[in-house]
Amino acid sequence: MGDVLYIVVPCYNEEAVLPETQKELGNKLETMITAGAVSEKSRIIFVDDGSKDRTSEIAHDYMEKYPKIVKVVDKENGGHGDAVNSGLMHATGKYFKVVDSDDWVDEDALHKILDVLRHMEEDGMELDMLIANYVYEKVGATHKKVIHYRNVLPQDEIFRWDDMGHFRLDQYILMHSVIYRTDMLKLIQLHLPKHTFYVDNIYVYYPLPHVRKIYYMDVDFYRYFIGREDQSVNEKVMIKRLDQQIFVTKTMIDMYQLKDIGSKKLRQYMLNYLAIMMTVSSILCIRSKNKENLEKKKELWQYLKKKDMRSFIRIRYGILGQTMNIPGKSGRKISSLVYIVARRLIGFN
């Protein structure tokens, strides 16, 4: 039996969050490496995406220290998605996980996940997707919000889409939640756009119809570090990158005619996911208070209408769609207020 899990860490100018300069995060990074050494079943690929600092040098130091566990891929800058593409190309393990360089994973949870994956391999079983919880490690927050799925998904057993329940708005499966089967991602030719932010949504959304066997573990695995001023999910940063958010949303619209998705529950889940993407793009246009961006919002809804009329009707006249399309200046204020309340309740940026 080969390696069970490959963890890919995309890096760009991450010297500040690697161990030599920030001991706490460095120790958390060591967690993944030591877990791999103990289990002898996981590997880490650092993908240096053309950094201009000492990121590559530090990553190579890790590879020299842990040659059986760590691999380094140096490449020209292509953005986060392209770094994931490169990691996938070099991954040879059974399962594939992306961990951003300023995030980390819980050591106990990682060991439990590796145990489950190893036992499944020994029994000749395989999954398409394993799901675990993630935690918002928000700067300045004393209470850490945990996103779990215990009310939605069967636990500790293989199941299919039709076995799942109803997801709450704050409970959707994100890149933080998922471990995919490597061969499945390669077979469906997953390829993320270069030099584009927010492609993690594509990473999660595109494989879904190809997933047949799912397994959920109720463990707080991924620690999502959030709250920095320069972070991609900071509202001001997102408005500056609005065109990339819209591009990703349109790319997701182009992927499927949702009426063709076989599982009714998966079809509804994907529709709701697309509704969230339309909502995020719309509210950023509104919050920008820019006339040109308001035209982009209108054009985005027309794009959905042209590409998938059935989905357009269901999203546009659902709760989220109606909230984001209240006419006039006062309507935009109401939309913005709803967003502010949701942001405070969910804590997503």
Concise structural overview:
By secondary structure, the chain is an alpha/beta fold. It has 13 helices and 10 strands.
Protein architecture, described:
With 349 residues, the protein is α/β, with parallel strands linked by helices. 46% of the residues lie in helices and 17% in strands. It has 13 helices and ten strands. Strands 1, 2, 3, 4, 5, 6, 7, 8, 9 and 10 form a ten-stranded mixed beta sheet that branches. The model is unreliable at 20-26 (pLDDT under 50).
Q: What does the secondary structure layout of this molecule look like, with pairings?
A:
Blueprint: E1 5-11, H1 23-39, E2 42-49, H2 55-65, E3 70-75, H3 80-90, E4 95-98, E5 104-105, H4 107-122, E6 129-138, E7 146-147, E8 158-159, E9 178-181, H5 182-187, H6 200-205, E10 214-226, H7 235-240, H8 242-255, H9 264-288, H10 291-307, H11 309-316, H12 319-323, H13 328-346
Parallel strand pairs: 1-2, 1-4, 2-3, 6-10
Antiparallel strand pairs: 4-9, 5-10, 6-7, 6-9, 8-10
Helical residues, percent: 40-55%
From the alpha carbons, calculate the radius of gyration and give it in angstroms. Answer: 20 Å
- Characterize the largest beta sheet: strand count, sense, and whether it forms a barrel: 10 strands, mixed
β-sheet strand percentage: 15-25%
Structural class: alpha/beta
Comma- or semicolon-separated keywords:
349 residues, alpha/beta, 46% helix, single chain, ten-stranded mixed sheet, 13 helices
